[in-house]
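QA checklist item 7 of 12: single-chain prediction sanity check.
[x] sequence parsed
[x] length recorded as 167
[x] structure emitted
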Amino acid sequence: MSDMVCVGAIAGSFGVQGEVRLKSFCAEPEAIADYAPLSTEDGATSYTLKITRPIKNGLAARLSGVATKEQADALRGVRLFVPRDRLPSLPDDEFYHADLIGLAVLDTGGTELGRVKAVMNHGADDLLEVTQPGGSKTFLLPFTLACVPTVDLAGGRIIADPPEGLI
């Protein structure tokens, strides 16, 4: 588990006054402002953040040091991070996506099925993209209690009971 967690990304400029189009990865999108200052992945640059308004597929925001459309456009694709200790504690049955990526996935008999490559959400439940051992093939595992009865962060593993025919 990394000490930095990605909470958003800059999708480009919004308007001509230096605002950015911001994609928030927080459960409540506006909560990203509560974690400011936000840093780039390498920690070289830090930004204070002021959300100006909600927009389609994200938020319009002002970042410190960004005053022109060109500066905002140059930040397209930059991911924004905060130290893990600034994030709230979660209940036992909830997890940060960053904590799940890289965990080993075992079936209920102990056979390794692969490692979590990504966590996706396309509107319903979360899906774990699992890379199978010895290759680059992946499969999507529903992240539900029925399919993933155990998540052992300390042990670095997930116990899965995939539906018949999934793998």
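[x] summary fact logged: The chain has two domains: 4-85, 97-160.
[ ] second reviewer sign-off
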